[in-house]
């Protein structure tokens, strides 16, 4: 064959994709549509890494927004006069709005400009966060609503950004870049606690933490517009990009395809268990540690704001350090182990979760006796949880065809949140309040009630490990199917592609 739609090589994205955006084609379309201007899409390697750096920075801010309120939780409770069960609902509102928005952004991300969608999301969450800092304590319901709008904005980023990285890098490069990208989940979460508590300590008001974030987000928006491309879907994996306006599968057809993909289904349930635990820990752990120190006589109780922010700083620093180490260890173990074992990724996820369960259990049960041991096991549990963030993203990208990865990310986020961290903070607070109502109110009883309500996390994370073991049973088959479906698009377009790039000299052997 004298010519063919050229694809990117391992050293960068250089190939015969018509245009820099557009829609993916339907499977088995049988055509390689003729674009208006047959200009190959290409991107130097350094530009891909710059784009990845911008996406990582924005991901940092994304997760800082998730947990900045948790860093000043006691002050928010005092300011708006809300109980444990009600303040747990604050995070639930955030995540419910996120999960309801994720399918919409997944649909848009698979069919329209991903760059424009991300820009809209950043504007939405930064504007809502800034406005929430000026809400009067008489209108607590409006503060809840603003957190929901922030969740809607962050849904765009969590859904779409990983798919752009998946179209810029492949194989080991993608594993490494995803590892760096997902490092910023625990780092951003930890810095959210740190920023909230540190700014409150400097200014005497927790409101200023919400006023500083939009400045950082404005920088991210400018960098996104200037430096991040919108590559053709499937570019890095040599899957053909169909011209804008071409017929493609419907959203419902994509959902049915994903529903039959057992690796995606079981890994999503495993991610749901992770989300349940990380959501509960992220929201309640600083208060749990604060009350543990009160019980041990190391800290006086807090009766009015501002409350001592030392526990938020400690937990934030712990989350940052264990997150960095855990993500790097998980990604590197996956990269090395999958060279000798094709099911390495889900097995690594399963083993880390099954090991995290007893660590979390010991961290909770030892807290009334010895704080040092509790901190050690909490750190180990967080480290083991963090090992999975980049690995589960790599699983999704390897078992799902590029044309519906945005939808896959959206569904995984939706299921993970609706069954995971959308309800876990509220559930923990509800159980804690119910247990406290059975006994006379005291700081010791508050602590013990929160401790008992936390114990369910250890059992949930063990169930997540079992889900990843089931993922391992289906992984190879689903990866092969995804490769065949992608190759099917390319094979069906070989003849027509000769007319696109007649001078490239590409042949079947080049691929």
From TrEMBL:
InterPro entries attached to this UniProt entry: MFS, MFS_dom, MFS_spinster-like, MFS_trans_sf
Domain Major facilitator superfamily (MFS) profile residue range list: 51-476
Family matches, as SUPFAM superfamilies: MFS general substrate transporter
Main location: membrane
Nucleus listed as a keyword: no
Gene name of the record: SPNS3
GO cellular component: membrane
Subcellular location: Membrane
Domain of life: Eukaryota
Species per Swiss-Prot/TrEMBL record: Phyllostomus discolor (pale spear-nosed bat)
Keywords for this protein: Membrane, Transmembrane, Transmembrane helix, Transport
Entry similarity comment: Belongs to the major facilitator superfamily. Spinster (TC 2.A.1.49) family.
Identification of the protein by name: Protein spinster homolog 3 isoform X1
PANTHER family, per the entry: PROTEIN SPINSTER HOMOLOG 3, SPINSTER
Residue intervals passing through the bilayer: 48-69, 89-109, 116-135, 141-165, 177-196, 208-228, 264-285, 313-334, 346-366, 372-397, 454-475
Bilayer topology annotation: Multi-pass membrane protein
Gene Ontology MF term list: transmembrane transporter activity
Gene3D superfamilies: MFS general substrate transporter like domains
Any one Pfam family match given in the protein's UniProt record, by short name: MFS_1
